[in-house]
Fold this protein.
Amino acid sequence: IVVLVTCPSRAVARRIATALVTKRLAACVNVLPGVESTFRWQGKIDRSREILLLIKTTRRRFSSLAQALVRLHPYDVPEVIVLPVVDGSPPYLSWVRRSVSRPC
């Protein structure tokens, strides 16, 4: 799966990305700067510059990843959206699975 998460700053994004890979909850996290988000919050339309994380993991690791995001993320309601991976390079997908497996 690919998980989308927005962050308020590059520092927060890097901290979350490093923690997820270190804990084997993600095989790889891309940090994409320069995202502008428009959203409704507390009854008003708001706009914010954010950093987008593209997190590659497996469905099996998602529950643990989501719990870690709640602990690590500064937002009251962080964006956590899961996109299925319907196909991909077999060697890459195998690497993702191995990377999030618990060490022997």
About this structure: Residues 59-72 form the longest helix (14 residues). The first strand starts at residue 2 and ends at 7. The chain has a mean pLDDT of 96. DSSP finds three helices and four strands in the chain.
